[in-house]
Amino acid sequence: MANVMLEFQEKYDWDFMKINTRAVYYHQVWGNQYDFENYNDVVPTLIKNSVNSAVDLDNITVMPGNSEPFEEQLEALRLIKAGAREDYPILMTIFTPIGILMNLCGERSIGRYRDSPRDKSFLFELIENNPVKVHQALENITETLIDFVGRVMDEGADGLFYAALGMARDGFFTLEEWEAYAKPYDVKILQTIKDKIVLLHTCGIYGNPERFVDYPINAIHWAQSADGCPPIDGSDKWIGDKLPMGGIDERVFGTNHPEIIKKLSKQTLMANRGIPFIFTPDCSVSINTTHEELMVFRQSVGDCNE
Hints:
Layout: H1 2-12, E1 17-19, H2 25-29, E2 33-40, E3 43-48, H3 68-83, E4 90-95, H4 97-104, H5 122-129, H6 131-154, E5 159-165, H7 175-181, H8 183-190, E6 197-202, E7 219-221, E8 243-248, H9 258-271, E9 278-281, H10 291-305
Helix pairs in contact: 1-3, 4-6, 5-6, 6-8, 9-10
């Protein structure tokens, strides 16, 4: 993974590196098992999940931040730091504790455009009937991540890409539930690295980026192209001291239409010329994205400044 990340960085000269860890390593820490020979899109097939009853929540204990799945990521970070030819910010990807717990319950965390009906979620059943156990599990996940994040910073990372996933989506958690089961654990982790760079991603439709303005972070990344999400233009009225991040629908990547990417990039950059923002796709792009598509996107900023 380290070599792939370094090659990707050197080929396209991005302004920072987001270490793109495998999506399930957090869940493996607490015992989820996956078939890495069979993927559903970018996620391996789940064989066995760890939480199938309230009793199983007792097994979600505090784990060392260098336990095997974490140590793999720390070693990747060491290799990246050793191989980086330039001094650009390197950010480790971290997931919100509530999203990790959702996956331990056998559910894929909410995000993008995926339907996530709460009435079919075992996580909500646990929250309703066993709130104390749920909070303890979240606390233990949080303490584990704090340990891991500390080790990440000790290895020389410049900060985090903090994936809040789609947990703030309208129609999933109520605002009160989100403030009880998501926000305090996010903030507890982020408070430990207030002097580092943190880019926060709220994923998909109805992502409510406004909820994150008082988090100790530097930028909020959301999908302005998705239903129910505000545009970057005008975000200065609510975003405070945070930078907006995003700007182009990630779904156009991998369609082999670089001319559309060029057009959309120009539209976003021209519409927001007076606003400091980080120009990125609205979420991770398709694994079928072509070199030409990425080059058109990369060159769009320079083209608009000519």
